Amino acid sequence: MTKENRAYTAAIRARIHDQAWIVPGLAALDETMEQDGGHDYAHLTRVLVNAVRIAKGEVAHNPDLEVIAAAVTFHDVINLPKNSPDRHLASTKSAEFAVKILEPYFSDERLAKIEEAIRTHSYSSGFQPECIEAKIVTDADRLESLGAFGIARTFYVSGVMGRSILDQSDPFAERRELDDLEFALDHFPAKLLKLRERMTTKTGREMAEQRHRFLEVFLDQIRLEVQDE
Predict the structure, then answer these.
(1) Coil vs helix vs strand at 164
(2) Where is the HD/PDEase domain positioned along the sequence (predicted)?
(3) DSSP per residue over 108-151, as a string?
(4) CATH fold group of domain 145-229
(5) pTM
(6) How far apart are the C-alpha atoms of 69 and 140, rounded to whole Å?
(7) Which of 53, 94, 175, 187 is most enclosed, with most CB atoms within 10 A?
């Protein structure tokens, strides 16, 4: 078990009872998940913290916290590159993997919720979450694309993929089509600025508001600095 794995294990155990699936589940995760700076155990921990906070706000809907924790754990186990033509299948593949690992530890009903939460969480998947656990996992992961970490992860992934920071001749795509496969800054209007309106829980929307405003402040500052050049 790696240091990062142990830290995430501790994060789960601090929030739910020590369940039988945790150790074998994280062992399987260690063997399979290809980590990068945007999708690693630190990301899982932040999503878990977001999810627990949302679940507390949505307590009237009686969310199953263990189902949520299991779904968060495996939601990025199969992580295809952002520019892959199969990118939209990553969450479905992750859900299938999780079901195989977790089947001995959960009832069919709870396993179905885990599968749905993983399969529907991805922005690019085209699926819509229906059960409260899936909605919470979706919102918790989307919060990671907003605020300071959203900015950091955007530019990290863009750097790995060799994207330019912006189109120097038209930074805010006022005279061209958005192209976030080519320019990191285009990812803000193409996706990130839309997430606040696509949160699926009341608590998630409330948490997204401040982080959305932070993105707007960042973009205002970029605009000022570009104008000064």
Answers:
(1) strand
(2) 36-155
(3) HHHHHHHHHHHHH--TTT-----SHHHHHHHHHHHHTTSHHHHH
(4) Hypothetical protein af1432 (1.10.3210)
(5) 0.90
(6) 11
(7) 94
CA–CA separation, 110 vs 34, rounded Å? 26
Token pair, residue 121, equals 């969480």
Question: Along the 229 residues of the chain, how does pLDDT read in single tens digits?
Answer: 677 777 888 888 888 876 889 888 888 888 877 666 667 888 999 999 999 999 999 999 999 999 999 999 999 888 776 666 677 788 889 999 999 999 999 999 999 999 999 999 987 767 789 999 999 999 999 999 999 999 999 999 899 889 999 999 999 999 999 999 999 999 999 999 999 999 999 999 999 999 999 999 999 999 999 886 5
Show me where the domains of the chain are located: 1-130, 145-229
Lookup: tokens for 166: 């912006």
DSSP state of 51: H
Two tokens, residue 163: 């994207």
Q: Which residue has the tokens 């990191």?
A: 184
DSSP state of 1: -
Distance CA 134, CA 98 (A): 14
Closest residue by Cα to residue 115 from 86, 84, 88, 93: 93
CA–CA separation, 102 vs 174, rounded Å?
48
The answer to whether residues 55 and 136 touch, using CB atoms and an 8 Å cutoff, is yes
Take residue 39 and report the two structure tokens written for it: 């999708």
Of 76, 67, 90, 60, nearest in space to 15 by CA: 67
Cβ-proximal residues to 177 (8 Å cutoff; 6+ apart), any chain:
none
